[in-house]
Amino acid sequence: MTDVVFQLAFAGLHPDRLRGLVESYGAEGALRRVSGGVIEVSPRIREAVQRSASQRATELARLGIRVARHGDGGYPPELGELPEAPPLLFVRGAICPEPMVAVVGTRRCTAYGKELAFGYGAALAEAGWCVVSGLARGIDGAAHRGVVSVGGRGVAVLGSGLDVMYPAEHGELARALVATGGAVVSEYPPGTPPEAWRFPTRNRIISGMALAVVVVEAGVKGGALITAGYALSQGRPVFAVPGDVRRATSEGCNLLIRDGAHPVLDPDDLVQELSLVHGAPANRSNRPASSAVV
């Protein structure tokens, strides 16, 4: 991974646009055109890519952020196999060495859904899986609270810079994930705001890191169904929790099951199904937790 690609990452462009520029002009050509104003971008983006790689490395070290580069050992291996994988990830903490399972769902979940998500997160962590999610309100946050409640490992994928926690109230949860040996990651550089367009494309990373995706509660629209769609296109099995056919928060899951997703009924059922599909993960109890600070 060259310094040029590293500098380009600080543009914070939509991944599809960045990929298209690199494919058209090469990394160095894209950087010249963005920094020189040949390609129309905001003044903030032009200034961002003009700063040297060494300056950026110093800034990241001050923020306690490291970079996992595509092709390096610290980059999630399942994600690295995909054509849409980002060239690098900004990381606080340690990306889990254990196989990952994504647990996702709606922000507008029921108390029942939140309880289930907490139980799935805890059960997966105790069984040796790493739980990846989006740290959003609702199902995502509940799943990761279940992970940290048993000292397990999880990875949260943000749609903003790592120094711009969104939602703000999940800052403590992010710190807990890092403290128990997991990580908070983003393809976007520090300072990137949580703009709405960044979240759908972020979801390809959640599913791409995982060997399977579990949808706990979801409507027919929203991030959870987008993540499930990415999972199917990436060849990942999708599991869904059946729910009351009269509830909007169950409609997405019920449709996924109708269309072939694996139904799961409780945390034990999920762990058993995953073990049948992928085998039981190695025990994580002897692996040290990360000492990085959020």
Brief overview:
By secondary structure, the chain is an alpha/beta fold.
Count of strand segments: 9
In spatial order, strands of the major sheet run 1-2-6-5-4-3-7-8-9
Bin the strand percentage: 5-15%
Order of helices and strands: HHHHEHEEHEHEHEHEHEHEH
Describe this structure in words.
It is a single chain. The chain is α/β, with parallel strands linked by helices. It has helices at residues 3-9, 15-36, 43-50, 53-63, 77-80, 111-127, 139-149, 171-179, 198-209, 223-233, 248-258, 267-278, and strands at residues 66-69, 88-93, 100-104, 130-133, 154-157, 183-186, 212-215, 238-240, 262-263. A nine-stranded mixed β-sheet has the order 1-2-6-5-4-3-7-8-9, sandwiched between helices. Helix 10 (223-233) links the parallel strand 7 (212-215) and strand 8 (238-240). Mean pLDDT is 91; it is low at 284-294.
Question: Layout of helices and strands, plus pairs?
Answer:
Blueprint: H1 3-9, H2 15-36, H3 43-50, H4 53-63, E1 66-69, H5 77-80, E2 88-93, E3 100-104, H6 111-127, E4 130-133, H7 139-149, E5 154-157, H8 171-179, E6 183-186, H9 198-209, E7 212-215, H10 223-233, E8 238-240, H11 248-258, E9 262-263, H12 267-278
Helix pairs in contact: 1-2, 2-3, 6-7, 6-12, 9-10
